[in-house]
Amino acid sequence: MDFPSPKSNIEKLHTYKPNFGKSKINNLIRLSANESALGASLNAIKALKIFSNDLNRYPPQVSDELVSAISKRYSLNKKKIILGNGSDELISILAQTFLNYNDEAIYTEFGFLQFPQAISIAGALGVVANDVNHTASVDNILSKISKKTKLIFLANPNNPTGTFITKNEVIRLHESIPKHILLVYDAAYSEFVINDDYTDGSELVEKYENVIMLRTFSKLHGLASLRLGWGYASENIIENLMKVRGPFSVNAAAIMAGVAALEDLEFQKKSVQHNLKWMSWLEKELKLLNLDFKSSITNFLLIKFPVELDYSAENAESFLASKGILVRGMKVYGLSNYLRVSIGTREENIKFINELKTFFRK
Which of 62, 83, 66, 59 is nearest to 233 (CA)? Predict the structure, then answer.
């Protein structure tokens, strides 16, 4: 070999490739990425339109303005907030910060694909805890803990299943793990949740040193293209993560839009109400088609298709794409007879159901 070779754990790794679906139709309806159905706040868009000065200047390493806006919006301690280039970056630097070679990190069977990716890149061993009925199992997670375990990754609500574990179960999980194990609690979809028995994880952070809550601006706030996320953890964890995080990982445009989005409470309420209304509508329509699906508290549904080839998930995905509707196939998760479908606009949701009816009639 006459060129530099990467570390063995990188060489064996497959590149993480988001799959938004493909279609030859230009005017697409994209229901494949769990994006905001209503776009972004007009206030955030206005902030970006006036963003033109000081393009030659680096952004602040830590934006006091954005941290303060997050603190005010969610009633959190400013000193415990860290910003990131999307929550993906925070997942990566958590693994880099806390995992050595030969360490282990636990993630759930149908958890976010970025978890095992980050663990492998850090050179550690990922350990899978099987789900029960497509839902994270506290007992199965606890059964996988060993002397080598350093991190536990838990997305709640979970992507791609849309399921969640209750507040009491989250508390039971945390109370049962050793204090030296860090619970990484990804609450990316928490703003859509209206269930009283759910926790976004912030109350655990207030009480304990070994929890970090992760959040994003990509879902409810509709700022996915700007890559903006944040975490909430003890000051000690934040201090160590800042040693690994790039000094200017959050750009100035994202900071401006993020502040404006957080302050637009009316848009946030409108987005949540839209999601609730059309989630209920989609569930009723899918039942009329005799399709099974996972009850979801997020902005997407995991839909099960028949095993018969003519009406398989793969054929449905191809048919919908031919009509300009992109949904997400779940083969990469080992769920080959499922499709994940995001809540769209009124027109998008209606067209999706109408084309799905056509698919089953053909």
Answer: 83
Q: Are 323 and 28 in contact (CB under 8 A)?
A: no
Q: What is the mean pLDDT of the chain?
A: 94
Give pLDDT tens digits for 90-99. 999 999 999 9
**SS percent in the chain: helix, strand, coil, step 5:** 40, 15, 40
Please state, in angstroms and rounded to a whole number, the distance separating the CA atoms of residues 215 and 87.
Answer: 6
Nearest to 152 by CA among 191, 189, 179: 179
Helix axes 265-288, 346-361, angle to 10 degrees: 10
Query: Which two structure tokens, joined as six digits, stand for 291?
Result: 């399709």
pLDDT mean over 15-37: 80
Give the domain 42-264 fold.
Aspartate Aminotransferase; domain 2 (3.40.640)
Q: What is the CATH number of domain 8-40+266-361?
A: 3.90.1150.10
Residue 233 bridge partners (DSSP) = 212
Mean pLDDT across 314-327: 95
Q: Where are the alpha helices (DSSP H) in the chain?
A: 8-11, 42-49, 64-74, 86-98, 114-121, 138-143, 167-176, 202-207, 235-244, 252-263, 265-288, 313-322, 346-361
- Residue 334 falls in which region: left (phi positive, over 0), alpha (psi -120 to 50) or beta: left
